[in-house]
């Protein structure tokens, strides 16, 4: 009866639950989102290196870097890579969408970029307004003029001059909206441009030149009508929002991105993400791919926001830092592989008695160091294995909860926004994304994994050993029978 129930539940998941999920994951938009975001990965990692260099946590070294000007150079490199994350996303998603449709893709990516620029106000607040609240400091960080004093002096100027000094600076791009805060807007623009551009090309809305015209030139004319229509529509959208003294990116940020960030950056969000990865993998579906694609939309802006706070020297929960970021997902929930299976590796190497577990433990050791555990997922297996399902589901949930709480209660600092590649070994990644305290906590999570997996692995190993001994006994009995004959 128990096996029937398990089989029935497995059939329900595979036949009823998984098909609509996989259909959603394989839609054109989600594929473009997933593959388009990959183009930003090199810039995120490179920018993370410069983010670390511009914020060396050694006062004497940091002071020397500031005095010599190198800190400013590192900041420039960070801003031009990680700091404009939304640019890479908006180009990449439109490019991939149109490429997957079989058309010339680069013009679509560039059209998407132009649209993204067009729908935002090209201005920033005047720096003087900031000084009126924060005051003026010297190179050593000492206050030389309070905000109140700055305001008092400005008030002495003629009103016309006051207006000029406090008016927004126009004709510039606002870096805020090119980074994490513009990410959801970039996703919407990238996907809509990719879809509409492909649809117009498919319907033949293009300028066709004679065959004598070089192909490189003809392709650009092919893009002219779709690009022109998209940009014209974007201009009208900008005009409508300008009437209300805002723009589409700010509207999307307040309407969608802030609530989504709040939803993902919660204990409940951490639990759902931690459980979902193992849940999908248990039924043989790539949980990391599904959850990473969907959750990344919410978590990447959290990472970018923390990086900006870290760069400004204001990384704290009180200043709005996020607990659940993309690195929380990559370097904790998926540490040593989906299900955080390092506990199984340790058991296999030091306590296993069955040949199957001991052999797979040796095979899995090196991949586990780099957060890969397919040998266990399909070889042990963990997929559709009810005997190991509880620790496989439980471990990432426990670590998600405990990691959330140690950050929430200030035991370790928030993640600093540095994007360590997901293959970075444990403890090393912890140091990069949160300093020595996070490295120690990451080591603790490895012990938690071991403690959860050990009793279940012991029972499963004993079962395998019994089966292996039975096979050996059967072989021996067959051999004796042959000899007797």
CA-atom Rg in angstroms: 28 Å
Number of strands: 4
Number of helices: 22
Categorize the overall geometry: globular
Percent range of helical residues: over 70%
Mean pLDDT, as a whole number? 87
Q: Please report which band the strand proportion falls in: under 5%, 5-15%, 15-25%, 25-35%, 35-45% or over 45%.
A: under 5%
Ranges with pLDDT <50 over ≥5 residues? 1-6
Strand order of the largest sheet: 1-4
Ends: how far apart?
43 Å
Structural class: mainly alpha
- Quaternary organisation of the protein chains: single chain
Largest sheet: 2 strands, antiparallel
* Secondary-structure element pattern, one letter each: HHHHHHHEHEEHHEHHHHHHHHHHHH
Overview of the molecule:
It is a single chain. The protein contains 22 helices and four strands. It has a two-stranded antiparallel ribbon. Strands 2-3 form a two-stranded antiparallel sheet. It has two domains: 36-257, no CATH class; 267-484, no CATH class. The chain is an all-alpha fold and 485 residues long. Helix 3 runs antiparallel to helix 5, helix 6 packs parallel to helix 12 and helix 18 crosses helix 22. A hairpin with a 5-residue loop joins strand 2 (136-137) and strand 3 (143-145).
């Amino acid at each position: 009866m128990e096996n029937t129930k398990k089989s029935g539940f497995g059939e329900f998941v595979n036949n009823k639950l998984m098909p609509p999920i996989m259909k959603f994951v394989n839609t054109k938009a989600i594929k473009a989102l997933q593959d388009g975001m990959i183009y930003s990965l090199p810039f995120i990692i490179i920018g993370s290196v410069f983010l670390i260099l511009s914020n060396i946590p050694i006062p004497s070294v940091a002071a020397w870097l500031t005095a010599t000007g190198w800190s400013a150079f590192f900041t420039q490199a960070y801003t031009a890579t990680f700091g404009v994350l939304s640019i890479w996303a908006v180009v990449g998603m439109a490019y991939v969408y149109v490429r997957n449709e079989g058309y010339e893709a680069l013009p679509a990516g560039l059209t998407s970029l132009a649209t993204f620029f067009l729908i935002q106000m090209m201005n920033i607040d005047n720096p003087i307004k900031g000084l009126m609240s924060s005051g003026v400091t010297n190179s050593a960080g000492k206050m030389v003029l309070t905000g109140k004093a700055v305001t008092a002096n400005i008030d002495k100027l003629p009103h016309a001059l006051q207006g000029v000094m406090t008016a927004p600076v126009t004709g510039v791009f606002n870096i805020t909206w090119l980074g994490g805060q513009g990410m959801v807007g970039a996703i919407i623009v990238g996907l809509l441009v990719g879809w509409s551009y492909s649809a117009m090309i498919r319907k033949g809305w293009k300028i066709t030149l004679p065959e004598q015209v070089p192909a490189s030139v003809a392709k650009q004319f092919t893009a002219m009508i779709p690009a022109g229509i998209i940009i014209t529509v974007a201009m009208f959208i900008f005009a409508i929002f300008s009437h209300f003294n805002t723009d589409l990116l700010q509207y999307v940020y307040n309407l969608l991105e802030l609530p989504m960030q709040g939803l993902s950056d919660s204990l409940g969000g951490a639990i759902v993400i931690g459980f979902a990865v193992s849940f999908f993998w248990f039924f043989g579906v790539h949980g990391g791919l599904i959850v990473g694609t969907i959750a990344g939309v919410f978590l990447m802006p959290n990472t970018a926001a923390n990086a900006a706070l870290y760069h400004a020297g204001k990384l704290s929960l009180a200043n709005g830092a996020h607990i659940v970021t993309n690195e929380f997902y990559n370097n904790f929930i998926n540490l040593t592989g989906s299900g955080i299976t390092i506990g199984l590796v340790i058991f296999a190497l030091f306590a296993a008695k069955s040949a199957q577990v001991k052999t797979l433990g040796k095979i899995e050791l090196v991949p586990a160091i780099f957060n890969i555990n397919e040998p266990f997922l399909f070889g042990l297996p963990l997929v559709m294995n009810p005997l190991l399902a509880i620790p496989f589901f439980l471990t990432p949930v426990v670590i998600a909860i405990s990691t959330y709480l140690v950050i929430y209660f200030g035991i370790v600092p928030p993640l600093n926004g540095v994007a360590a590649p997901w293959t970075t070994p444990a403890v090393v990644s912890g140091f990069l994304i949160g300093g020595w305290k996070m490295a120690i906590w990451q080591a603790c999570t490895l012990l938690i994994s071991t403690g959860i997996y050990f009793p279940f692995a012991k029972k499963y190993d004993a079962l395998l050993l019994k089966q292996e001994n039975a096979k050996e006994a059967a072989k021996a009995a067959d051999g004796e029978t042959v000899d007797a004959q």
